[in-house]
Amino acid sequence: MAQAGNSELVDAFEQFFRNYYDNEIKQLAQQYPNEQRSLHVDWQELYRFDPDLADDMLAQPEQLQRYAEEALRLYDLPIDVSLGQAHVRIKNLPETETPEIREIRARDMNSLVEVHGIVRKATDVRPKIEEAAFECQLCGTLSRVPQSSGDFQEPHECQGCERQGPFKVNFDQSEFVDSQKLRIQESPEGLRGGETPQALDVHVEDDITGEVTPGDHVSATGVLRLEQQSNQGEKTPVFDFYMEGMSVDIDEEQFEDMDITDEDKKRIYEISNRDDVYEKMVGSIAPSIYGYDQEKLAMTLQLFSGVTKHLPDGSRIRGDLHMLLIGDPGTGKSQMIGYIQNIAPRSVYTSGKGSSSAGLTAAAVRDDFGDGQQWTLEAGALVLADQGIAAVDELDKMRCVTGETIVKLADGSNESIGEIACQAAAGGTIEPLENGQTIRGVDLAVRTMTESGVIVDRPVTAVHQYEAPSELIEIVTEDGKQLRTTADHPFFIYQNGSVVERSAENLEIGDRTLTPQDRSSVIADGGVVSAESAHSAGRDVEPKEIIGRRRIEGDDWDYVYDLTVEGTHNFVANGMVVHNSEDRSAMHEALEQQKISVSKAGINATLKSRCSLLGAANPKYGRFDQYEPISEQIDLEPALISRFDLIFTVTDTPDEEKDRNLAEHILTTNYAGELTTQREQMTNLDVTQDEIEEMTEQVDPEIDADLLRKYIAFSKQNCHPRMTEEARESIRDFYVNLRSKGTDEDAAVPVTARKLEALVRLSEASARVRLSDTVEQSDADRVIEIVRSCLQDVGVDPETGEFDADIVEAGTSKSQRDRIKNLKQLISDIEEEYDDGAPVDIVMDRAEEIGMDHSKAEHEIEKLKQKGEVYEPSTDNLRTT
Ligand code: ADP
Ligand code: MG
After folding, report:
1. Start-end of H helices in 6-113
2. Are 618 and 329 in contact (CB under 8 A)?
3. Which atom of ligand 1 is found nearest the CA of 393?
4. Shortest-distance ligand to the CA of residue 663
5. How far is the centre of ligand 2, averaged over its atoms, from the C-alpha of 490 (Å)?
6. Is 364 in the pocket of ligand 1 (CB under 6 A)?
7. 335 C-alpha to center of ligand 1: Å?
């Protein structure tokens, strides 16, 4: 530290301000205190003024900030105002003081650092008492007690009468400041190959509160402090870092961390000019996965994305492309979409099974991140992936339990989930689904587990009821608890000190699943959590061993059930904590509008989610059935499916030539891996370097992943293509031709205008791959080819062989709709003839007479019953409503 007295340092700051910040200070004086209360100082300028002073600032930030603020107070101002409470907030530190969040270590304690990341959680802004004025109830004297961040401090005795109170806090005389807590997580672009992002909590006060929203990319500068962890109320020797924030600024720049050198640019241009640039791209995506050239080309287009358009009327058309892979298990879908992380300049990968408590969109909850009363807004995957790609595996996961399952309610009582659904249906609003219903507006709260393993009470936002699948899994734990769930229902498994999630079908005997302990620390939503329990590493749950697991037939159950518990996405079922699904309604809007609105209690926020969704899902019945329309085969609602620009289906059918090539490819990939391991581990190897290189070359990406990331970022930043007349003509002709097949009175509508927008986006992306500012006819033809083949797979009614947009857009094909109409007509005709409604067997006979498939008719009747359009006045008799 420079050997200077206090007053010299204050003088130094005064001089610095005069040289560098005179205008800013004069402006501050005019705006103070209502519009502005801080002078924002760039550290680099301080360094230019006096390197020693700047270094002192880093070493002893607190003291130096005080001197700087003192200098501000003493500053000669043209108007008569005192900047008494104004802050000096430093930012823009040198690179040596901007560690990655994961690099922060004990030595960084009390030092000034700047971190970059994305705001994952933010509490609402609440007043915090800084100095409490205690009024003695006996003599009326005010005793002032400064409050630090720990517990609330009361005076030992009255400063007037020296008696021990009683005291009352006098709010008017106390000093309050606005305070807020943020959690900043490492940006997705800084992470390679699926590292788990680390986070740092930042406490901010006064004028810098309420300035950022979850999802914002920010730089936060402040002093690192320690906070002691505690375990079940006991303090532990381990501490957590948090930052006392001096400044928090939104980073506007996209991909700011990407250093694209001139050399890189040269290589990028070179590749972009090659005739085989598209093949090169395809050869750079998941090279270990054989085949899927068209899917990989589509993923390439998704990486580059189309142009976001702002129309003259103020509306906006997204440029981002959403894409879905649905297919048989074990066909490499997960591998492929996981690879996106290696090459997308910004991406978030999550499996529908796990993912953060905010799920895919966002959550507003009262939890232990705040003080237990504060609302916290948390960004989910689609927000964290803003301006990038959200890769979501197992998008369709169905997490349900059977109706007799007992759920622990907030008041500690028990109720079967079937009964809960019944009661909810009576009071809530019902949204019919293809295979069940969702009930909202439910007045119910249940026990649920937070991220830190604390059991709390939370409201249920929706109850779901689905047709039971043909197979279920039954689990038995060592303490005799039993639970029946769908095969992919995730359980929390305790493993080596941490909690992982595993689906019911992948559970093994001996796995230990979490069960709530009988402890009294249950915190009601909105109840106060003490500072200790908020930071408690102690859990209210304990692991119990699974001693039985078997597959059972689903036929004994008509329905299975699920609850949406906001923010935690789990509940206590038959004494076990089980994961549940999230409510998807926010997601549909997010994909189209690319923003997520949260309005709840005091929170009204709009989070940006300008990202592309790359989803993967498995068919509901295990394997694809090419004779069934797609909407019948996946557990995704039409409102979601129709948002995808491209849907690929992946079927796994034996084919000798393909199988041979696939086998060869997988064996080569593995062999190359073996050689690499041997080269690293063994000294004398009987394989030459050339041989090794030849093998690895076959499985290396064509364009190095690092360069490809830069290529994509560069193109997205610099390339804004426009369509040529030829390209527009190609797309127009394709669309009109396809539609013309639907002009017959009786025909289905083959495609809707949504596809047209998809074609535009795709062809713009295709131009961007070449770094071209014009969309040529070749781009249009390339994407027409892809769209045609996707439509062939999912847009054709298997019963008629005709294109039918409603399969995707409405979830019901025209032939299905006709069948339903015919059936209802049949039933209402037949019920005229009988007193007690139309007998089912007569309905089935007549249906068969008019050429309807027996099982299809059965299925449709079942659905009509579910939707309440047909009911059973007595067993095996039907009546229309
Ligand atoms: P899915 O998600 O479709 O169920 P996975 O991505 O988990 O399938 O793939 C299962 C395994 O099979 C992975 O190890 C993957 O590498 C391998 N595999 C499947 N299809 C291919 C393929 N076409 N080329 C190379 N490997 C494949
Ligand atoms: Mg998979």
Report:
1. 6-20, 22-31, 43-49, 51-59, 61-74
2. yes
3. 2
4. 1
5. 14
6. no
7. 6
300 phi, psi to nearest 5 deg: -60, -50
Cβ atoms of 377 and 603 within 8 Å: the answer is yes
d(CA 11, CA 490): 63
The three state secondary structure string of 843-854 is: HHHHHHHCCCCH
pTM over 0.70: yes
Distance CA 645, CA 43 (A): 47
Rounded to 5 degrees, φ, ψ at 339 are: -70, -25
Are 175 and 157 in contact by the 8 Å Cβ rule? The answer is no
Q: How many other C-beta atoms lie within 10 A of the C-beta of residue 156?
A: 11
* Structural domains of the chain, ranges and CATH numbers in brackets: 6-92 (3.30.1640.10), 108-250 (2.40.50.140), 281-393+589-650 (3.40.50.300), 401-580 (2.170.16.10), 656-705 (no CATH), 814-880 (1.10.10)
218 Cβ below 6 A of ligand 1: no
Tens of pLDDT, residue by residue over 851-874, are: 888 888 888 888 788 777 888 888
First to last CA, the chain: 86
- Whether 639 has a pLDDT exceeding 80, the answer reads no
Higher pLDDT, 151 or 290: 290
Q: What is the pLDDT of residues 482-538, one digit of tens each?
A: 999 988 787 888 887 777 778 788 888 999 998 887 654 444 444 433 333 433 445
Q: What are phi and psi of 9, to 5 degrees?
A: -70, -40
- The residues, ordered by sequence, that sit 6+ positions from 797 with a Cβ below 8 Å of its Cβ are 629, 748, 803, 804, 807, 813, 814, 815
By the 10 Å C-beta count (0-12 exposed, 13-18 middle, 19+ buried), 263 is classed as exposed
Give the position of tokens 């005291």: 167
Q: Which amino acid is at 393?
A: D
Q: Could you tell me the distance, in angstroms and rounded to a whole number, from the CA of residue 665 to the centre of ligand 2?
A: 19
Determine how β-strand 323-327 pairs with β-strand 646-650.
Answer: parallel
Q: Closest ligand 1 atom, CA of 329?
A: 4
